[in-house]
């Protein structure tokens, strides 16, 4: 089955800095790569996704890049704000999730 | 739109009892997913349905777990008998189009926190 690894497990940045979270996957046939933000006591919320026919997608301060050859995709958050603090999960085809990254943005 | 609705939000039960978790997907969505989240194992897919038909239940831990989707607006996840190791947060999610890939609007519910004592 699919294997998804997510790094780092924790990330602490200063407000205004950028944050990058990376996931690698094993199945080259995978074609849908969403990112979720989960706040304490809530369900994961989709923040951005990318399909295998696209290399990059951007939505305001959030971007996702996909390298199909290397089988990895990354979440980029620019100009981080304290409200970005949460746990972020990558997923592949909604079937397999990464282990999560706890992002802390220090004011 | 009320989103994906799960009930109950919290459930505490004694070992050996039957537990039923409920999910109402977003109206118009045709795929439904059940996940379990624990600190040790993270988010795991248990089962997903497409057009009310179970497509992949390979994530269901064992025979004590069963899931049904009698119609497009309702699904249940049942554990019988429950055990302490079943304690987790159980999430339901729904989407439009094919489950697993190519869908749109994947939305999670708020989850059910299950504690088995």
- One letter per element, helices H and strands E, the order of chain A comes to EEEEEEEEEEE
Distance between the termini of chain B: 36 Å
Low-confidence stretches of chain A: none
Shape of chain A: globular
Strand elements of chain A, count: 11
Largest interface (CB within 8 Å) is between: A-B, 22 and 22 residues
Number of helices of chain B: 0
* Helix content bin of chain A: under 10%
Radius of gyration of chain A: 13 Å
What is the rounded distance between the termini of chain A? 41 Å
Q: Write down the overall geometry of chain B.
A: globular
- Mean pLDDT of chain B, nearest integer? 92
Structural class of chain B: mainly beta
H/E element sequence of chain B: EEEEEEEEEEE
β content of chain A, as a range? over 45%
Q: Give the assembly state of these chains.
A: heterodimer
Q: Structural class of the helices, strands and pairings of chain A?
A: mainly beta
Largest sheet of chain B: 7 strands, mixed
Q: What's the rounded overall pLDDT mean of chain A?
A: 94
Rg of chain B computed from alpha carbons, rounded to a whole number of angstroms: 13 Å
Descriptive terms for the model:
heterodimer, A: 107 residues, mainly beta, five-stranded antiparallel sheet, 0% helix, 57% strand, globular, B: 117 residues, seven-stranded mixed sheet, four-stranded antiparallel sheet, 11 strands
């Amino acid at each position: 089955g699919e294997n998804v690894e997510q790094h780092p497990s924790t990330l602490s940045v200063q407000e205004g800095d950028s944050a990058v979270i990376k996931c690698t996957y094993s199945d080259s046939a995978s074609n849908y790569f969403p990112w979720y933000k989960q706040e304490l006591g809530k369900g994961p919320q989709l923040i951005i996704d990318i399909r295998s026919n696209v290399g990059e997608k951007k939505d305001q301060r959030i971007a996702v890049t996909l390298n199909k050859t290397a089988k990895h995709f990354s979440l980029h958050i620019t100009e981080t704000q304290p409200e970005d603090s949460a746990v972020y999960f990558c997923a592949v085809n909604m079937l397999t999730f990464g282990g999560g990254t706890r992002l802390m943005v220090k004011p | 739109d009320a989103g994906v609705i799960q009930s109950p939000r919290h459930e505490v039960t004694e070992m050996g009892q039957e537990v039923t978790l409920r999910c109402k997907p977003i109206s118009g969505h045709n795929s439904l997913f059940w996940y379990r989240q624990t600190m040790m194992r993270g988010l795991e897919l248990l089962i997903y349905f497409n057009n009310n038909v179970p497509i992949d239940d390979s994530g269901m831990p064992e025979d004590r777990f069963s899931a049904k989707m009698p119609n497009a607006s309702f699904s249940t996840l049942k554990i019988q008998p429950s055990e302490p190791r079943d304690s987790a947060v159980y999430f339901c999610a729904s989407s439009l189009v094919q489950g697993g890939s190519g869908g749109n609007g994947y939305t999670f519910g708020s989850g059910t926190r299950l504690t088995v004592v």
